[in-house]
Amino acid sequence: MAVPRVWKSASGLFRSIVVGAIRAYLGFALRTTRWTFKIDPQSYLYLTSQEGRTAVVAFWHEVLPLTPALWWWAERQNPAVHLRVLVSRNSDGRVIADVVAPWRIWSIAGSSNTRGKSKGGAAAMLRMRASLLHGCLVAITPDGPCGPRRQTQQGAEALARLVGKPVIPMGASCRAIRLKSWDKMFFPLPFGRGVFVSGAPLWPTPDCQMQDPAFNLQTHMNNLMEQAQVEQQHPAAGHIALRPQVTCPSHIWKGVGALLAPALPLYLRWRQSKGKEVAGRVREKMGFATCPRPSGKLLWFHAASVGEALSILPLVQACLRQNGHITVLVTTGTVTASTIVAQRFAHDRVVHQFMPLDVPSWCQRFLNHWAPQAAVFTESELWPTVLGACHARNLPVVLVNGRMSASSFRFWQRVPGVAQRMLAPFAWVSARTEEDAQRLRSLGANSQLSPGDLKTAAPPLPVDAQVLADLQAVIGERPVFVAASTHAGEEEVIARAAHIIRQTYPNLLSIIVPRHPERGADIASRLNSAPRRAQNALPTERDAFWVCDTLGELGLFFRLGDCAFIGNSLPVCPGGGHNPFEPARLGCAVATGPRVHNFEEVYQALHECVQVVQDEQSLAAWVVRMLSCPDARAVLAQQAQAVATVNATLPDDLAHQILELIW
């Protein structure tokens, strides 16, 4: 068995060398050629996929080596253009496919069935139809793969008629020598001049003829070839040099990641020692999978932390509900987010992994193993290396709940080229707000859906009904104030506010839910050894505070409380706020500190439904008012609940758009 393996390895190496050499020479010749494009105005709209237009692009087999220049030109006009080219299933066709694949020209293998032998024509026709219906251009050589030369077969016209799309006939010529092949194929030479000429779009009719009765496709294409040769021999002004679109957003960032790669495993082990990584799963952040890839189509969602993970929960559920055959891979960056995924995304078709760090080889390893059909990034998760790897594979990438803060916008404006190369190839972007959409658009995200905030569409936080009933029995009639997602420094303010409130309501129970549960022990020690939920300790009548340092139970605590304060918002911490829709959906009256820039639009939507407090005095005054006026509290809670549930159909709408990408 050793000899065949060695031979297979040597054969594969030789083939890789041949493919690489062909690609290097062809790329050099095409890049050094000065090109002219004579494109019909109507065909221009299709060749550059303006407003999602798609078409069948037809050119003779002999000009196949020149066509990458046409795609480079099209990508220059619209970086979001997607390309598929029909190649034969034989070895020559596979070599062609491998040569052009790094230029984001992806192949569909198959050709007409002849002599009773299946050559994949029917399957290729179905794939080309799906490609055209989902926003891709499809290129066909009507005389391929074996001729006769410059005589059209029925494939191009049949495909156009099947999908109701036009055929764009093309002609091309450049400084080249002709090979002694059946098609007299062009072999381009460097430093010459070349030209592409297109005809007007030809629309199919039910009787299998093109609309123009004077000419058929074959005549159009032959005339265009003659015109291209004349144009190439008598060059006019306006020549341009072309090169493949750069799929790597930042070579500097990619290089830094590669240089740091040897030291990063030590960094990850250090984080594990601090409890910030999960033992046994650290290698996932190096791109090593800890479970096999499920068979079938895989949809990849990435959510960095808890907030992002919760925001995509209804979207993931909608995708699973609309397509019963896909598997969803959810990646996160933090341990707390992974716990939320384990608790809230429990489904036999959901797999969780940690996102690899943005190191080139680690990202490639991750993508090689999981091979997703589409990738969904969340909010502001824009990592140049992994996005570049996705774009290089022509993997459809979308951004949901896209967020671009003013500070992030200023940063990306300093590196506009990196931002443009990251965002322009996105299949589409769905921003949270119109302001986010405008910022993302100015950075290069041209294909956008209507804005909408997924955090306004999430279902109410879940609860175990029996646990809720048991705790309600323990607490009894005591008034309950919940301080949720608190950060360092805020607990002291809340403790002072609780002291003021107890002067009016002596039996008040204050539930403190720190954003980071590992801080629970320290918080409890500073609150007279308050009982901790993580230790299964329940509050007694003598306890003024209950520290709930667990994950995934906010739905329980908001249901226990009469009113809720949302942390990470007081002046004593850096601030930014957290999602107020979570308590609002459960009928809580809500207060926050003034620092809510991470959720500014959400708080603007809630407007007068949320009270802004500055310190312990204003916080205490608000809680006393809410406890003293239950009718007024109920009105505010109902108003906030109505705002927090306004986008109920958004997850289903976005899920439909995402599933369209994985046909």
UniProtKB/TrEMBL annotation:
The keyword rRNA-binding does not apply. Residues 81-149 form the DUF374 domain. Keywords: Transferase. The keyword Transferase applies. GO terms for biological process: lipid A biosynthetic process; lipopolysaccharide core region biosynthetic process. The active site is at E308. It holds the Pfam family Glycos_transf_N. GO terms for molecular function: Kdo transferase activity. It catalyses: lipid IVA (E. coli) + CMP-3-deoxy-beta-D-manno-octulosonate = alpha-Kdo-(2->6)-lipid IVA (E. coli) + CMP + H(+). InterPro entries: DUF374, Glycos_transf_N, Glycos_transf_N_sf, Kdotransferase. It is an enzyme of class 2 (transferase). One of its GO terms (cellular component) is plasma membrane. The record marks E379, K455 as: Transition state stabilizer. PANTHER family: 3-DEOXY-D-MANNO-OCTULOSONIC ACID TRANSFERASE, MITOCHONDRIAL-RELATED (PTHR42755:SF1), 3-DEOXY-MANNO-OCTULOSONATE CYTIDYLYLTRANSFERASE (PTHR42755). Involved in lipopolysaccharide (LPS) biosynthesis. Catalyzes the transfer of 3-deoxy-D-manno-octulosonate (Kdo) residue(s) from CMP-Kdo to lipid IV(A), the tetraacyldisaccharide-1,4'-bisphosphate precursor of lipid A. This is 3-deoxy-D-manno-octulosonic acid transferase. The lineage of its organism: Bacteria, Pseudomonadati, Pseudomonadota, Alphaproteobacteria, Acetobacterales.
